[in-house]
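Troubleshooting log. The previous structure file for this entry was overwritten by mistake, so regenerating from the original sequence record. Sequence copied from the archived sheet and checked twice against the printout by T.R.
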Amino acid sequence: MSATATLPEALAAQLDALRADYDRDGAVRVRGAFGPEWLAMLDRGIERNMEEPGPMGKRYTPEGKPGMFFADYCNWQRIPEYREFLFHSPAAEIVGRLMGSRKVNLFHEHVLVKEPGTLEPTPWHHDQPYWTVDGFQVCSLWMALEPVPREAGVEYVAGSHRWGRWFRPKRFADQKDHPTDEFETMPDMEQVKRENRLLGWDLAPGDCVVFQGLTLHGAPGNHLPTRRRAVSSRWTGDDATYVLRNGFMSPPPLPGAPEPGGPMDSSVFPVVRRA
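Regenerated output below.
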């Protein structure tokens, strides 16, 4: 566990200014959050991960289709670059301040790579119905290693984390629902987009987006001439508890996980920050 990080004054002031926006909208951009040393570390980690995928690794692009959509998660215990970033970068301090949580647990990291020409979108969804965690102090910190213009990046439905609705998780491979009777069907997203404010940003390397676990979001394929590599680290706060879902669970129950209904503190979801 790392101690509370001392952030640069400008970054700390930026987070203070963003706190109300995060509470209202469920997603904010943080500019210049990570320096080049952290980007270089994640670059090495992603390359190692793609050469040696873990048990959760998947390629969502069908054989013979252009590009390649690769994703993998829960590799921080075996990839030292991920561990160093998650435990010693400003990430835990950033999310703790935005969530208003004194304690921050690592849930897991999730790597998403779309090569140029990849057609497969990231389907509209929100994260917590996939996850084995309940509570409101739950979020992701999404950062890209390459510049991402808004039209090529993730979009978010502002305020959707406050709807009090949980939608069935989508399979990324075929965009269909995971079978479960625990949640409601995803609404017509074209109507949702017409009736709500959408958020999205141009992102430079070192910028990140922090979004709450129930904020609806989705992303297009990669029509850029460059790769789009992103690391999304997942975090929980003071009010989070471990839960087992009825159906698909991400991650699946892991050795060392806490008891259902209990706090997240465990060897698999370690405390990284205490204020």
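The chain has a mean pLDDT of 94. Archived copy saved in two places this time.
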